[in-house]
From TrEMBL:
It comes from the Eukaryota. This is Uncharacterized protein.
Length: 229
């Protein structure tokens, strides 16, 4: 079992990297990559990993491990987690350099904008999703285009929509989990609700794929190539 002592992990990574003990270094990096992965599915499983508790509320300490282990592939997940903390929590950390702190502040704003646009799509009738609406009504007598569940009591579909309001930008809500944030609203048919679920998940996957760019880290592929695993 891998040690959960942070000082030991840092020293082991530093020495294995310095003296090219690649088998040990790769073991350590692979274990850290289970907590700070490069895939959304991996991120959703991270709470089940043994090292997870080491970094709860303190993901920024892993930035030092990524640096000494020459593993930039870990940084997008690390900095994303930092974006979910209050600003002063990561600004005061000694493990993040100024460039990384700046990336967290700017990246959080960029991601809030993306999630804000997604909230708008989920909280109002969206004609692009209405092709198979079960209760939609014909917009005009000369065409077959349907509106999406045109009912007066359409309600916000996202339970935590207010958390993405631009004026609540001190921290980024944790929006990549696999929990069901969508709620069924009276008057929304099963087809439209299913379409909303697909939209919600596909957009979160898109945002994840663009995560390194929001944090000024380039692309996932470039980070993978720069990390010897």
């Amino acid at each position: 079992m891998l040690s959960q002592d942070l000082n030991f992990l840092t020293a082991a990574l530093r020495l294995s990297t310095k003296y090219s003990v690649q088998s040990l270094r790769r073991l350590l990096i692979s274990s850290l990559a289970e907590i700070f992965p490069d895939t959304l599915d991996g991120f959703r499983q991270r709470k089940n990993k043994k090292l997870f508790q080491m970094f709860v509320g303190e993901a920024f300490v892993a930035a030092e491990l990524a640096r000494v282990g020459e593993a930039p592939i870990l940084l997008p997940s690390i900095l994303y987690c930092c974006c979910t903390y209050p600003t002063e929590h990561f600004i005061d950390s000694e493990q993040l350099d100024w460039t990384q702190k700046r990336a967290c502040v700017l990246g959080r704003e960029r991601m809030m904008h993306q999630f804000g646009k997604l909230v708008i799509c989920l909280t109002s009738p969206h004609p692009n999703l209405a092709q198979e609406c079960e209760v939609g009504q014909t917009i005009c007598g000369d065409c077959d285009h349907n509106s999406l569940c045109t009912v007066p009591d359409w309600r916000p579909a996202l339970r935590r929509a207010m958390e993405f309001a631009p004026w609540l930008g001190d921290r980024l809500p944790s929006a990549f989990s696999n929990t069901m944030d969508l709620q069924w609203s009276n008057g929304v048919c099963s087809t439209c609700f299913g379409n909303l679920q697909e939209l919600y998940d596909s957009e979160r996957r898109r945002i994840w794929e663009e995560l390194p760019g929001y944090l000024d880290l380039g692309t996932w592929n470039a980070l993978r190539e720069a990390t010897d695993m």
